[in-house]
Amino acid sequence: MSLATLVSGSRCTSGSADAPVALKKEIVESMPVAGFAEDTVLILKYHQFAKEYLFQDAEKAMFYSKHVLRLSQKHQWNKGKILAYNLLSTYYLLDGSYDVLRELSNETITLSKDMPLYTAHAKRFLAESYSEYRQWDSARINYRQAIAIFEKLGEDSAAATCLDNLGNSYREKGMFAEAIPYYDQAYARFDKMNSDWGRATVLQNRGYLHVVKKEGKEAEELLKRSLVLFQKINNRYGELNVLNDLANIYCLSQQNDLAIETAARALDYSTIFHSSQQTNWALLSLARAYKNKKMFQEALDYMEKVIFNRRMLHTEYVQRQYTMYQLSYDNQIMDSEIQAKIIAEQRTVQRFLIGFSCLIIGFAAFLWFNNKKLRRKNAEIREAMARGQAIERKRVAAELHDNLGGTLASLNWYLFGIDKKVLSPEEQKIYESVHQMVGAAYREVRSLSHNLMPAELEEHGLVMALHRLIDKMNENKNIEFTFNISGMSHRLNNKTEFELYSIVLELTNNIIKHSGANKASINLTENHKNIHLTIIDNGNGMVEPSRQGVGLKNVKNRVESLRGKVQIIGQQPNGLKVDIEIPKTIV
């Protein structure tokens, strides 16, 4: 229940002032059940009783509010505490106990961090306290912060109340011209909501502005309009407040009989409401009116009651302070007991977590050592595979060079031994073709055996092997190849060098055979994290994925074996770019 709903709802209760509440069951259980759910039901029930009594009988409202607070403290339920603090804040605001109001507001702000509506109400109450102590700037800041929250949440009634309070703040400072626009805004909002309580409240506050300005006629007119609205909605506290203001006006204007009649009505209402402050104002108006009529004995009697009542106000103030300190002490004791219980539970959980963490750490260490052993084995296997591949490639290269190459060389030699002159012209053409084919096959076998495992790669490393490869391709004169290198001050492992060499060989062969390019560049770059290989040509451009041959698939497989990434990007307007990135963690 928001305070805006609480205030507007309570001030606008229908029916008589006594009957609806008096018929309710009002027995507070002396031994509330231990369960949170059951106590929550009691908290909400007592909160409803306190809310309905708030503007009818202050003592009963306080009685139920304290029970709401005690049960909420029992379970450390912040929402219940805030409900109690809102009720108590409203009461202490009406009763003029602004020191207690400030303490309650600050406590509510602390508890309502995730409940902006209650934070806004607490800021409004805090602003009322600042206004009473004439700390105008602090009051206005808190009013405006509350208005911003209320408007964001769509709480129009609460926002209008704050605007009305801002008007009061300027009125108390004597800035009457600045106060009136805030009263107008508040009245317009309440009028739009058709809130009789809101209209009555603004009319009363604006009427008191004219009292301060000693404009009795204007003040009386506004206060009478306010009184009619409060009577319409049976709001006893509103009637009481307006009657005391009217009695004050009548005393100032020497309408003594009317002042006595009005103050007497206010005195009856204040007795029913149990408000010492309102009772004191009514008695003071009676004493002044009788004094104005030269009826000094009656004036003295009422002044003695004023003095007695002021003493009672001081006693009530002390009692309230004691009650607040007692509640705060009880709250702290309960918090300490709950915190001790929580600490004990946390220690038990902590011991369990420490033991469980030790088991996890032990198991993690076991896995780490096993994983380290597996990684070492895998590295050994990879190294062995790389060595095996190198040996096998050397063997295949030797077989190609020595056997197939030797056979083709012999065949070519025998072809030279044939006398072309004895052949017919047609046979000579066939001879020339066969001779050229055998020569080409021999050169291809030599190139293939060399590329399978070039001596430069094994002896001098990747950079030297690539330089030799590019130089050989440039002998063709059809495509101009350039080789750019950055970094690469140290050799890589055998597998990485061989795979990168094979990738370059595959991609440059593709350029020669399929691209139609006349320029191409091979760029090899090393940084502290990666090895970058980029090959760019100005040929036919992007190859459709569905038409990619075995060569490109082999390139992708080789890159994946090095845990790298490959991108094939079409260049504008023509050409192709192959970008390969190899992490240095494996090199």
From TrEMBL:
GO cellular component: membrane
Key words of the record: Kinase, Membrane, Transferase, Transmembrane, Transmembrane helix, Two-component regulatory system
Residues that span the membrane, as ranges: 352-369
Histidine kinase domain residues: 395-586
Transmembrane keyword on record: yes
Molecular-function annotations in GO: phosphorelay sensor kinase activity; protein dimerization activity
SUPFAM superfamilies to which the protein is assigned, alphabetical: ATPase domain of HSP90 chaperone/DNA topoisomerase II/histidine kinase, TPR-like
InterPro entries to which the protein is assigned, alphabetical: HATPase_C_sf (IPR036890), HATPase_dom (IPR003594), His_kinase_dom (IPR005467), Sensor_HK_TwoCompSys (IPR050482), Sig_transdc_His_kin_sub3_dim/P (IPR011712), TPR-like_helical_dom_sf (IPR011990), TPR_rpt (IPR019734)
Protein name, UniProt field: Tetratricopeptide repeat protein
Species name: Dyadobacter fanqingshengii
